[in-house]
Amino acid sequence: MEIELVTVDEVDKSVLANLVQFYQYDFSEIRDLAMTRHGTFTYRYLDPYFTEVGREADFITVDGRLAGFALTRGDVDEDGSWNVAEFFVARRHRRRGVARASAQRLFARRPGLWTLSVDHNNHPAAALWRSVISTVAVGSVTETDRYPPDAAVACTRFRFRMADAAERPPRTGPPGPVDTESAG
């Protein structure tokens, strides 16, 4: 199974917008997201990923086929950190290691400080992120619970530092299969 992150070009913005609909649909189970009268969900933050510096949109592919996306933002806290704003793996690819491998690749591209927040009602995602972060973080990991009005929803914010290549332990033995995560 070949898992890759592929930069979303503006010409493929509509494809990303379609995937965001699946993402929002999944979230409608844990958040109060209502469909528009057109049968879609509203997501106001897509355009900045194609117009603002410091925002990146990537497709997640498995064997060359779409499997999800990752949206990241740089310097959210004005300290040079990167933030995972949105992360989605389609149901077909969950519990097969796709989310774990994609997240590890995402973090490895930018050593340094990272943050991400997980909705308190999204237990599978919390388990996944704790597991992934424990394998890539150097030093301590900070978990801070946030609540409205300081956050849009009750969530846990993770803050950690991703190792650069020199800090990562050398791989021993042949590469094994992609790990299986507990959530997608």
Question: Describe it for me?
Answer:
With 184 residues, this protein is α+β, with helices and mostly antiparallel strands. It has one domain (3-162): Aminopeptidase (3-Layer(aba) Sandwich). Helix content is 24%, strand content 28%. It has four helices and seven strands; from the N terminus they run E-H-H-E-E-E-H-E-H-E-E. Strands 1-2-3-4-5-7-6 form a seven-stranded mixed beta sheet, sandwiched between helices. Helix 3 (98-108) links the parallel strand 4 (82-89) and strand 5. Helix 3 crosses helix 4. The radius of gyration is 16 Å and the shape is globular.
Tell me the layout of helices and strands:
Layout (H helix, E strand, L loop, with lengths): L2 E5 L5 H15 L20 H4 L3 E8 L2 E10 L7 E8 L8 H11 L3 E8 L3 H14 L5 E5 L8 E8 L22
Parallel strand pairs: 4-5
Antiparallel strand pairs: 1-2, 2-3, 3-4, 5-7, 6-7
Helix pairs in contact: 3-4
Structure keywords:
4 helices; Aminopeptidase; 184 residues
CATH architecture: 3-Layer(aba) Sandwich
Distance N to C terminus: 16 Å
C-alpha-based Rg, rounded: 16 Å
Regions with pLDDT < 50 over 5+ consecutive residues? 170-184
- Judging from the principal axes of the Cα atoms, what is the shape? globular
- The oligomeric state is single chain
CATH fold description: Aminopeptidase
Number of domains: 1
Major sheet summary line: 7 strands, mixed
Biggest sheet, strands in spatial order?
Answer: 1-2-3-4-5-7-6
CATH superfamily: Gcn5-related N-acetyltransferase (GNAT)
Mean pLDDT: 87
β-strand amount: 25-35%
Class, according to the CATH hierarchy? Alpha Beta
Q: Would you count the extended β strands for me?
A: 7
Percent helix, as a range, is 10-25%
In terms of structural class, how would the helical and strand content be classed?
alpha+beta
Element-level helix/strand string: EHHEEEHEHEE
How many helices? The count is 4
